[in-house]
Give the backbone structure.
Amino acid sequence: MSTATELRRARPVQAVLAPIVLGLLVVLAWQGAVTAFAIKPFILPAPFAIGAELAANLQSVLAGMTVTGGNALVGLLLGAVLGVLLAILSALVRVLDGMAAPIVSSIAVVPIVALAPVLYTMFGAGAETARQLVAALAVFVPVYFNTLRGLRQVRPVHRDLMRSYAASSWQATRTVTLPTALPFVFTGLRIASSLAVISALIAEYFGGPVGGLGKSITSAAASSNYGLAWAYVLGSIILGLVFYGGALGIEKLATRRT
Amino acid sequence: MTERTLTPERRWRIPRLARPALLGVLGLVALAVLWELYKFFGPNNGVLIGDLTVLPRTSDLAMPHLATMALRLFEPVTGAATALPLWLAVLQACAFTLGIAAVGWIVGVTVGLALALLMQRFRLAEAAILPWIVLSQTVPLIAIAPLVRRWGAQVQLGEFAWENWMSVALIASYLAFFPVSIGALRGLVAPDANHVDLMHCYAVGWWKTLWRLRLPASVGYLLPALRLAAVSAVIGSVVAEVSIGLRGGIGRLIVEYAGAAGGDPGKPWAPIFGSVLVGLVAAGFVGLIGLFLRRFRRGEVNA
Amino acid sequence: MSTLSNSAVPAVDVPAVDIRSVGRIFPGRKGASVTALDNVSLTVAPGEFVSLIGPSGCGKSTLLRLIADLDVPTSGNIRVFGKPARQARIDQDYGIAFQQAGLLPWRTVTGNIELPLELHGVDRPGRRARAAELIELVGLTEFAGSYPDQLSGGMQQRVAIARSLAERPSLLLMDEPFGALDEMTRERMQNELVRICAETAAAVVFVTHSIPEAVFLSNRVVVMSPRPGRIRRVVPVGLGAMRDRGEDLREDAGFFRSLSTVRDLLHGDDGPAIGAPRGVETR
């Protein structure tokens, strides 16, 4: 009823149109600025030039996306499974929750990529394992926290209801706890999805085999091939969007059903 | 989960505040024990499935004893006579990185707050900008760190010359602005319709409403956002140091010492502990801000 | 209080609130609009206590929001002390209290009561003095330095009422201010409100769900009906002047008579012809 809350809801047409218009304006301004001020391509190539470069090197960019995307995916799955399992354990066993708290909070405030070099020595610098683990650790944090929050979200009235039905603890978990927590798990996954890509990519800056997007960006930049470097950057942007979009879609599906 | 509330008496009595601390220490000890146990029992070459190493190698090189890591901290960095003790070198690098992260944090927080205010004030701005802000985080812009450096080299205005550390701070701020803009926007629109109506009744303008109502009400949302931003700024600084090749910070030490790991397995762990420290200090600093703003985090109880 | 010149008592013949054939239509999705108010007219005299009562959806809260200029009517017009509602709001001619106390959780009781004074540039000593006065009026002297989360619901609501009185308004708008309180607290608050009204001589427009509350407090009870929101009948209560109303009144025969009249009207029975044709106000 309140006019204040009414104001916050943008009309659908506006919600779709406004960001698109803004995006187009920025790209056009960028292109215009590069042309008008004759900015040299090694500083900032024009968007259309980057597009052309991407088209010309599609094969190698796609290969890089496959490598980095594969690492991110493995990390995402691994981190998500670990995060959910540990969160369930923490919700069930309070002592475990207390023990995990400082470790998980430290992981949350620490640059996980810093672990990349030692992981390379632990798992072999020739394999992708270290990068997948870096991605998994990065994914683990939001998934763990969100799942735990979801599991604690059960309303007292529902818990009392289950008690009054004399429901077993498994029944209560299945009918009340899990459905309540599920949307939170997927929110955690959505946040984690882009983290997985970024982490897998920057782990490449710290060593390991070539082939991924991160290594390709640095080597293209090192050899002053800036157009190509930007094409790889564009590839990584697309990869990030694919992961985010996928997670968002799954989240939408899951929350609609529950 | 339900039974707990029904048993009021505890078996052993521990002061209420000491309990989480004790459990936390227990957790860390458990982690250490796990490390040493696996090192002792695990195969030297790691556990392999086919060609894939699924559990790490346990050689002294790959998994040094915890004692090795700790003792290494108190030895000099190198064999040179003038070398500092390792812990001191790491602490200096920590301070350097923390400084850059702080600059990035301040820039990021300023930009984030400005965006949030803009979006709160103008609905069209929210519709146009918000999706891009969300998308900006799916974009690993940190990937362009090597390219940002190239920009910096071009900037020269009179006395002012762009330095490499500024590129690092710029990337840190890019990571930091996101949580602030989202958190602040959520906080600024958080006041109850009731409170907004009241301000309308008092016939006060946007600025007064912002100052008296929206900003105080947003503190609860802002603080976690500021903490996230601090952490992101640290991560951004560490990574950007590596990819830009800036010397002096903790990120650079991580790569440098990792290269020296061959004969000195304890050494690479020192800057890692350093980065943990930087992250904790950054988060702790925001916690301190929260202490000063405690008054604004009171909940309203509607009986 | 020299800075608050706008709270001067208006000329006697200007009604506190003058509502003329007001309608409010909320546009719904796909053209399905909701008529919250349809052709409503009502006048409230200075110092008069008028309650709006009716089932949910009858538009009583909407009507109050229109008077407060929190919302704008689709048709008709509203004047408050002879001015358009918007001007009256800008001039701070009314004080308002909502169902939720709506206190700012980071301010103490004193700080909350001072808020409107602070916003309108009253100096610090003036604010302190006025707040202390009001805190005493609502009987919360011991809690002047407490924060809202340390108070019970009834106390919070008393602070909200004190806040609404801060600028000595000649009109009070109250939207179910006691709706969230238990029955005991509620009756006590009603007694206090009667006392406060007698002391301040402000006109009151009071939205409520409760029939006894409306009858006990009011000079006139406006019974409304839903879909579309209309005034069904205006019932004059005539239980005497505010200052004479006490706890005994709840046992009075006149009180029960008015009670059953209002109840019959709410239940769809037109009751004895006390008021005027629906929607038209005569006095």
Summary: Chain B touches chain C at residues 192, 194-195, 197-198, 200-204, 208, 212-213, 216-217, 219, 295-303 (CB under 8 Å).
